[in-house]
Design a protein that fits this description.
By secondary structure, the protein is of the alpha+beta class. It has nine helices and 25 strands.
């Protein structure tokens, strides 16, 4: 009416000049639009849900109710006409009941109230869900080839299906879904529920459950067929995790897929069981479609560490040398302290995912305040991975020329060596709990082409323990010992030193250890170093740390340890924590800043 009157008044004012008339019309139209917008805003609707008698409604019940309310779709939005709102409110009881049924409430009461406030419409739902229905009887049956499979029988003991349990249709549907998924994953591809029902007696507020599950036949492997690949079928078949005649278990197929992806030969791997091609024994083929990777991979890097100074690296990895899947990598690392040229040649073992034979040739040069050495080495090694454990053993020959002060030595060694590592953690990049333990053993004998005889062992351990959501305790311990017939001929690379980023912070790299008559550190027979650190999360990806380090390298067990204390900051980058530490030696002058990158374990 307001808009109609304004236009009519403008049409009568013909005596006004044309420009003033146009401005008047625009002003009146603008006022009208503003008024309509304010009216719509005033008619916004708010929906409030609460329990009756000052009882708070359970959060899960409220979520279910909200999901079923048509009126809620208008919550805090422009509302339709008052008649439409009242119509939707009259449907409220039916919608509330529909929201409560899946959780076992069949005797609910709903009171509704609609009022108009200065802010718009306000709809109030006051709900008494009533008592929850209980399971009176539960008849659960398992049929088919898998009726005696213990991995499928467990569903019959699920709490939500037991007599006198609170009826929960959400849990009931989840149990059904989980059982179907588990059965298919075990090779029962045609498994189904031949009967699935819940009969509810609202008078007694009880339910009778009947579930009959038929597994059908169990499908088994006939053969695995690989598409064309740059490596031979003989190698690919060693990646199989199932033998012909074994059940087609999904987890085993996924394990095979992961192994093929991790091999580096392929950029894509797709595993497809052919369920629709069973033979008379219910055996099916499995097709594996392979997308070859680029044959050569190049990687370049640069960085800085307080132990090594500025550094850079370049590598070439040939993902396959021949159709037997042999691999080769050439790596060059340059830094202010160490320079390394390394050639690795890998041969897949019987189990190519976990077993590898490795040939190695290397040249390494190190020049620091305490070490001046050049090492040429060749060796062979076998590496095994078993779950969270890694084993390796091998034989190496090395020629090292090293200098301490004005004295130069050259030592040839033929070294059998082995190592074992165990890592247990919830997250390798950002652990809350976990530990790492490693043991390294090596030896040489003058009777076997070596210039000196020795036996050496080193045990290292790290642990992380969360004291709260944001507070962690980190510990580290390194212990090493050497027995040698002539320690003076032990190469510098096989002597123990302490100090540096991953040893006793506050001291320079390899600054701690026995010294010669000129005060030059020459390395020791023994090593003992450890650390205790507390860190606290101050932001989502940032931590502040306090630490205490202690340790030394020595020839005599009564040598005192050197200690340091400090503070640090950690940034949790996508590739692991970046650490900056400021450490002060307890018994010596000065302080040192340490910068490191790498996982906590």
């Amino acid at each position: 009416m307001f808009l109609y009157t304004a236009l009519r008044g403008s049409r009568l004012g013909l005596a006004l000049p044309r420009r003033q008339l146009s401005l008047a019309i625009l002003l009146l139209v603008g006022c009208a639009v503003t008024a309509v917008s304010r009216a719509q805003a005033t008619e916004a609707i708010q929906v409030v849900i609460e329990g009756q008698h000052e009882n708070k409604l359970d959060a899960q019940l409220e979520r279910n109710v909200r999901a079923h309310l048509a009126l809620l779709r208008l919550d805090r939005d422009a509302a339709p006409s008052a008649n439409r709102i009242r119509y939707l409110l009259r449907r409220a009881a039916q919608e509330v009941h529909a929201g409560l049924y899946p959780l076992g409430y069949f005797n609910s009461r709903v009171e509704t109230q609609l009022e108009q406030t200065e802010q718009g419409w306000r709809a109030l739902y006051s709900i008494d869900p009533g008592p929850r229905a209980r399971v009176a009887t539960s008849v659960l049956s398992l049929h088919g080839e898998g009726k005696d499979d213990p991995q499928l029988q467990r569903w019959q003991q699920e709490a939500a299906l037991q007599p006198d349990a609170a009826l929960d249709q959400v849990a009931y549907e989840q149990i059904k879904s989980d059982l179907l998924e588990r059965a298919v994953g075990l090779g029962y591809y045609t498994a189904q529920f031949s009967e699935a029902s819940i009969a509810v007696d609202t008078q007694s507020n009880s339910a009778a459950i009947r579930l009959t599950f038929d597994t059908g036949p169990r499908y088994r492997l006939r053969q695995v067929h690989f598409s064309a690949a740059p490596v031979g079928d003989a190698l690919l078949q060693r990646y199989r995790t199932l033998e012909p005649g074994q059940p087609v278990v999904t987890d085993k197929l996924l394990e095979m897929q992961r192994g093929l992806v991790d091999s580096g030969y392929f950029s894509g791997v797709e595993v497809q069981p052919q369920w629709d091609q069973p033979d008379a024994q219910q055996q099916i083929p499995v097709d594996v479609f392979l997308t070859p990777n680029q044959r050569n991979a190049y990687r370049f890097g640069a960085g800085y560490g307080t132990d090594t100074g500025a550094r850079m690296s370049a590598s070439q990895r040939r993902r396959w040398v021949n159709d037997r899947g042999h691999r080769m990598e050439t790596l060059l690392r340059l830094s202010e302290v160490t320079n390394t040229l390394l050639l690795n040649y890998e041969i897949p073992g019987t189990d190519p995912v976990n077993d590898t034979y490795l040939g190695r040739a290397a040249y390494e040069q190190e020049k620091s305040d305490s070490t001046d050495s050049e090492t040429w080495s060749v060796g062979v090694q076998e590496q095994l991975a078993r779950g969270n454990q890694n084993w390796s053993w091998g034989l190496g020959a090395e020629q090292e020329t090293f200098r301490f002060g004005n004295v130069e030595e050259s030592t040839l060694l033929l070294v059998p060596e082995g190592s074992w590592t165990l890592v247990e953690t919830d997250n390798r990049l950002d652990p809350r709990h976990g530990y790492r333990v490693s043991v390294d053993l090596s030896a040489a004998s003058e009777a076997l082409l070596s210039d000196t005889s020795f036996v050496q062992g080193q045990v290292s351990g790290k642990a992380v323990y969360s004291l709260s959501d944001d507070f962690r305790l980190l510990t580290r311990l390194d212990v090493g010992a050497t027995a040698a017939s002539d320690f003076g001929r032990m190469p510098a690379s096989r002597r123990f030193f302490a100090g540096g980023d991953s040893s006793v912070r506050g001291y320079d790299y390899k600054e701690l250890g026995p010294t010669d008559n000129d005060g030059e550190v020459r390395g020791g027979r023994y090593l003992l170093a450890g650390s205790v650190e507390f860190d606290y999360r101050v932001a989502p990806d940032w931590r502040a740390a306090l630490f205490w380090d202690s340790g030394n390298a020595f020839d005599s067990l009564d040598t005192p340890l050197k200690s340091s204390a400090g503070v640090g900051g950690r940034w949790q980058s996508p590739v692991g924590p970046v650490r900056v530490d400021l450490a002060k030696p307890v018994d010596d002058d000065g302080f040192r800043i340490h910068f490191t990158l790498g996982p906590d374990l």
